[in-house]
Amino acid sequence: MRQITNGTRTANQQAGILAALGDLLRSQGVRTRLISHITLRMTGFPVQEKAGSELDVYGLGGQVATVTIDQENKPRGFLIKLPKSGTVVPLSSVDQPQSAVRWVVGWANGGAR
User: Fold this and answer.
1) Contact assessment for residue 94 and residue 17, using Cβ atoms and an 8 Å cutoff
2) DSSP letter for each residue of the chain
3) Phi, psi torsion values for 100, nearest 5 degrees
4) Which superkingdom does the taxonomy of this entry point to (predicted)?
5) How many CB atoms lie within 10 A of CB 107?
6) Per-residue pLDDT, 74
7) pLDDT digit string (tens) for 81-101?
8) pLDDT of the residue at 62
9) Is the pTM of this model over 0.90?
10) What average pLDDT does range 17-24 have in this prediction?
11) What is the number of other CB atoms lying within 10 angstroms of the CB of residue 72?
12) Which of 29, 99, 105, 111 lies at a 20 to 30 A Cα distance from 61?
């Protein structure tokens, strides 16, 4: 029997923070898509993969970035990954999303990458 779970409460909080960031970005005219990764658990098989979420950001010409939350360091901050180069850039703390919104809107509108 398979059980599908949404992971820990931390994963749910992470999804909520990214959903709120997505709402802020959409209010600035940026297209986004929230993807939540779930953990599949099968009886008798350990699962190593963590549940989590990412926010895909679209701009001129398609996807321009993926935003995640840094789970390794404290305080928690947003990370933006640029799909063409694979570069990961740290953004502001999740407690200060306005700064992250400015950066992401710039990327989505063709600004410096």
Assistant:
1) yes
2) -EEEE---HHHHHHHHHHHHHHHHHHHTT-EEEEEEE-EEEETTB---PPPEEEEEEEETTEEEEEEEE--SSSS-EEEEE-TTT--EEEEEETT-HHHHHHHHHHHHTT---
3) -65, -40
4) Bacteria
5) 19
6) 82
7) 988 888 998 988 888 888 889
8) 85
9) no
10) 93
11) 6
12) 99
